[in-house]
Specification:
single chain, 203 residues, mainly alpha, 7 helices, elongated
Length: 203
């Protein structure tokens, strides 16, 4: 039985995202456990500002560092999830005693692959429509085209803002620009599929 691209593509992205995150987490954990030796503690960071991580926090700290290492990949692959997470991340910045999982890079690693599933399903649907395996609905094409326009506008706006003289460049913002630009192209596929099907119907 043939697997639909609407299922296969989101599943593959989720699998890749969490496999990458899990792989770095295990690697970090094993390195910390080896470095801890008999003391059961590891000094992390430069000597002047290093912190001691106890053994019972090796895995959590390893996960946090893995989230940092995979953050840019997660942001580009799952950029639409930022729209859903924006209110939460904005509030989390002002929480005085926020849990470790509310750290922006950890939250992205945990939730972005799941929150972006509908967007990836749309990409799969669009590809199948381009291959004439599905009928592209007009409202889906128009909605996807509008979202592509929003992504492109935000990417251009952020890029222009970054180029202002004296503007401090935020590395996170730069990767969001790349992610939004990528998704502007991915989302326009629905509109292209719709136009392609209309042309075939007329021809």
């Amino acid at each position: 039985m043939r697997i639909s691209l609407m299922t296969a593509i989101p599943g593959l992205v989720v699998l890749c995202s969490y496999s990458l995150l899990g792989g770095f987490t295990v690697r970090n954990y094993l390195r910390m456990r080896e470095a801890g030796g008999q003391t059961g503690r590891v000094d992390v960071g430069p000597a002047s500002i290093s912190i001691q991580v106890p053994q019972n926090q090796f895995f959590r700290f390893g996960f946090e560092r893995a989230s940092v290492l995979t953050e840019h990949f997660t942001m580009v692959m799952n950029a639409p999830a930022a729209f859903v997470s924006l209110p939460f991340l904005t509030l989390a910045e002002h929480w005085s005693r926020a849990a470790w999982w509310t750290l922006p890079w950890v939250w992205k690693g945990l939730t972005f692959p799941l929150l972006a599933i509908p967007a990836w399903m749309l990409v799969g649907y669009s590809i199948e429509a381009l291959l004439s395996e599905r009928r592209m609905l007009t409202w889906v094409a128009v909605g996807s085209g509008l979202l592509a326009g929003v992504c492109a506008t935000l990417a251009i706006g952020l890029r222009i803002d970054e180029s202002r003289p004296g503007r401090l460049v935020d590395e996170t913002e730069r990767w969001y620009v790349i992610g939004l630009a990528v998704w502007a192209f991915l989302l326009i596929a629905a509109l292209i599929a719709w136009a392609h099907q209309r042309r075939l119907q007329r021809g």
